[in-house]
């Protein structure tokens, strides 16, 4: 019997160019996530884009800033709003490596961000469809377009690697007689569920 040829649907050139741009900006957000890791923070990064240009960047930094609201999205929103002298950011797209939490989702809606693109899903605190979906909440006045799972594997793998390395560091050194290595208490942070 003859094998059916594999069918690959032709994507419209514009749609494919948009998808390519989304992946490129998500990789910039991943660079920001790496910055967070270098400072011992859970690696989540964000970039805010308008007219194809990066307006602001941010990475997760609640420990360093002693600020529970210092998630990557909030850091990028604050930077852009301050730069533009406007608390509203219409026409912008926010790329973030991890699904936004409820705090960040509401901040993005308050800022009137036009579009939100995220990487990995967050089954514990995700407010873009995983735990709840504030972007689809009809009772809220404002809405942003939402796109998930862009470079999801790379975004999720970075978080998994981070938690794996943190677990390894927290194990007592085999040669040190009973003396465990001090590990920084990170508390409950976004991405913690990647601690497999
Ligand atoms: Zn958040």
Bound molecules: zinc ion
The total of helices stands at: 5
SSE run: HEEHHEHEEH
**Helix percentage:** 25-40%
Report strand %.
5-15%
Backbone structural class: alpha/beta
Could you tell me the number of beta strands? 5
Spatial strand order of the main sheet: 2-1-3-4-5
Instruction: Provide mean pLDDT, rounded.
Output: 87
How far apart are the first and last residues' alpha carbons, in Å?
45 Å
The major β-sheet equals:
5 strands, mixed
Spans of at least 5 consecutive residues whose pLDDT stays below 50 are: 178-191
Gyration radius over CA: 19 Å
Shape assignment = globular
In short:
The chain has five helices and five strands; from the N terminus they run H-E-E-H-H-E-H-E-E-H.
Structure keywords:
196 residues, alpha/beta, 5 strands, 36% helix, 15% strand, globular, binds zinc ion
Give the secondary structure arrangement, pairings included.
Elements: H1 13-38, E1 45-50, E2 53-59, H2 62-65, H3 72-84, E3 92-98, H4 102-110, E4 115-120, E5 145-147, H5 152-170
Parallel strand pairs: 3-4, 4-5
Antiparallel strand pairs: 1-2, 1-3
Helix pairs in contact: 1-5
Zinc ion (ZN) binds next to helix 4.
